[in-house]
């Protein structure tokens, strides 16, 4: 993110706001695929399984975090069953010079922004929704490459090292296709 995506974001800022538009960039990456589990000090074995997890809003930002990077674990959600998987957040860029408490508070607030449920989700809503859309795009792409339409020029050039992305976008777009009138929720 630091070496490739941050410069692209800065170019997009200039493209949208002109050469003088230079907002401060903050980049936080989340990770759920790790082997750290947060467990309360005292667990009542008579409690329901969800009540045996750390409470919503629990933040751990010392002791087990990276010594060089600003990092924290934020358990924003309640597990319906089993052990809660608390995401780890690593701050890669903090040009706004936000404090750890501000970064943690902003991250936690964004976990309440998913408009499908009325409680916090495990990740900030923009991250969660982007992941769902990326999965949908991957599935659509895989489905399309296995269909008869995939013999078009855009896909034949992929194997040759070049891709006509405009043509590929046209082929993968929903306009005029069976999926065009299907509703998609966040």
From TrEMBL:
Where the record annotates domain Piwi, the positions are: 21-142
- One Gene Ontology MF term: nucleic acid binding
Q: Which PROSITE patterns match?
A: PIWI (PS50822)
User: What is the protein name stated in its UniProt record?
Assistant: Piwi domain-containing protein
Which organism does this sequence originate in?
A: Plectus sambesii
């Amino acid at each position: 993110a630091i070496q490739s995506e941050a410069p692209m974001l800065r170019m997009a800022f200039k493209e949208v706001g002109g050469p003088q538009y230079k907002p401060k960039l903050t980049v936080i990456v989340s990770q759920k695929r790790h082997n750290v589990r947060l467990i309360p000090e005292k667990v009542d074995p008579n409690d329901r399984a969800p009540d045996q997890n750390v409470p919503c809003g629990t933040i751990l930002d010392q002791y087990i975090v990276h010594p060089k990077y600003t990092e924290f674990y934020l358990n924003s959600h309640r597990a319906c069953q089993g052990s809660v998987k608390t995401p780890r957040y690593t701050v890669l860029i903090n040009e706004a010079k936000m404090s750890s408490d501000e970064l943690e508070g902003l991250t936690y607030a964004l976990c309440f922004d998913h408009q499908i449920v009325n409680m916090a989700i495990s990740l900030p809503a923009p991250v969660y929704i982007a992941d769902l859309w990326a999965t949908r795009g991957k599935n659509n792409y895989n489905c399309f490459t296995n269909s008869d339409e995939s013999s078009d020029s855009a896909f034949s050039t992929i194997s040759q090292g070049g891709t006509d992305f405009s043509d590929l976008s046209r082929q993968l777009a929903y306009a005029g296709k069976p999926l065009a009138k299907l509703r998609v929720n966040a």
